[in-house]
Amino acid sequence: MTGPLSFALLGPVRAWRGQSEIDLGTRQQRLILALLLARAGGAVSVAELVDLLWASDPPPSAVNVVHRHVGMLRRRFEPGLPTRATGSVLIRDGAEYQLRIDSESLDLVRFRRLVAEAGGSSGEPAVELYREALALWHDRCAAGLQAGGRAHPDFVAVDRERFAAVRAAADAALRAGCIDAVLPAIRLAAEYEPLDEALQARLLLALAAHGRRAEALAAFTGIERRLADELGIRPGDDLRAARDSLLDHDAPATIRAEPPMQLPADHPYFTGRRDVLGGVEELLAGDRPTNTLVINGMPGVGKTTLAVRLAHQLAGRYPDGQLHADLRGFDSGDSAMTPAEALRGFLSSLGVAPAAIPADLDAQAGLYRSILAERRMLILLDNCVDWDQIRYLLPGIGGSLVITTSRRRITDVAGPVGTHTLHLDPLTGAEARELLARWLGDAAAADPATVDEIIARCGRLPLALALVATRSVGRPGLGLPAIAGELAEAAGRLAGFGDAKADLEASFSWSYRALTPEAARLFRLLPRHPAGPLSTEAAAALGGLSLRAARGLLAELGAQLLIQPDDGRWRMHDLLRAYAAELGDEYDDAADPMGRPRTGDPDAAPVGAASGAHPQYR
Predict the structure, then answer these.
(1) pTM for the whole structure
(2) Residue 254 burial (CB count, 10 A)
(3) 226, 360, 375, 392, 531 from 363: Cα distances, Å
(4) DSSP H/E element including 516
(5) How far, in Å, are 84, 255, 296 from residue 420 at the CA level?
(6) How far apart are CA 613 and CA 618, in angstroms?
(7) In this predicted model, what pLDDT tens digit does every residue of 431-474 receive, in sequence order?
């Protein structure tokens, strides 16, 4: 896996190498990274990290635990770094750690630069700079990492920078007469800080400038009530002045918001899946109602790519716009989007003021369904973890369509009428050849035998084929025969993918981390069975399990789409088999038929550590 490192702190803590997201491990590791990022390249002492992880009563081993967590983070940023090596990204200087980042690799640094540039400008250029800066925020700083409901002071300070920028952006936009550009950011900030009178006053003025004077007056009433109920005070000068300005003018006509157009860009190299696309057309043209399409399949099979292509293909039939949310069901950390979070975003996009969004989840869903009942919209919900995560996001009546993706089976129980599941298998041989031809052009056409060998080694998995193609394009001296040779020499291991090995591992790991420890152990043992369909009896023998226990664990692996049913048995994709084998090599004793974890690695988080599970879990 190649490419520069980049980091996000303005919302959930995330990191990427190139276009590939890095698994940041446990909550404690993500907390350490968050504080390092909040310092934006500044030093953080070991003592501060101990206080961060244990607000009180740290264990005697606290310093060693911090060093181990830092070591694991260091190897995530620099794969292949030898144990205990210092590396060049996360460095130690005495009793302090520092993260080396360049000026554009951290969203916080970019935010500060844009705000500084906006402060030195005026008019619409300044407003556009503020808009660009505020668009970098996706939630509170280091969202989801608060301990006991309290955020670290460094994270609070970064949040304050945001709210100061929102106030400055509102003032600049009101002066320039272009409040539309920053009104969404003002609304969101006011929702986060309902008792910030200066911020709420600017929301009132922004709503009035947008032609929503009646809504602004209603918002003032709500703010006045909150201040009285929670603080026992009356509105201050800023709020009263904003209210008085509202009463001095007749309310103009309300500006109708433009329909939301939130679809991600279509993939330029999309190929194949004509049978699936044609099947959807038949479903929509048929007599049976179709309002929800659930696309599932194993990791790397191209669910999101197909969903986005399908959404673009159908968008013209839904004139009231498109909504999109990445539900983060299998992302790093505990950052899965809640139904309430998704509904608040959708309701805001549909023109509902933050103050008018109900606090209760059922009430939010009711308002959402009421709005959609009179509209024809397309809603794309990517990366769903289970049915409970999306059931509140489904329209009731009306002509809208939901397309959702998941890397597990989420409709084993009966879904509502109009729900249809589309299961994706790897590409056919012809589709795989077409995909490589789109990527590689003449190079693929000139050597069809080698292309077929690569397709077989990749198991016709779109992600693996795309990684091979980008590797070939990115390294002109590395021809297809050389790539095929590396894949063959690897003898069924992911090492044959070279730098792209980590991308495959990352994709597979999101499903692996969702397993219970018992199912994960059986997954790691399955490659010890000869290739081919596996019976329940064979799985039981591999794991030293009863038939009943083996049957349940195989069903769990099947629900996560890590294995597939095959005429009363189970089969595993070759690349998942290679991934499982490498996990087994790393964490299990090959000489132990029970697959018990190895011990003695001083830098590996032990089984039962802070996460309470295997090191690959979170």
Answers:
(1) 0.54
(2) 13
(3) 20, 5, 19, 10, 52
(4) none
(5) 51, 38, 11
(6) 7
(7) 998 888 888 877 777 788 888 888 888 889 888 888 888 877 76
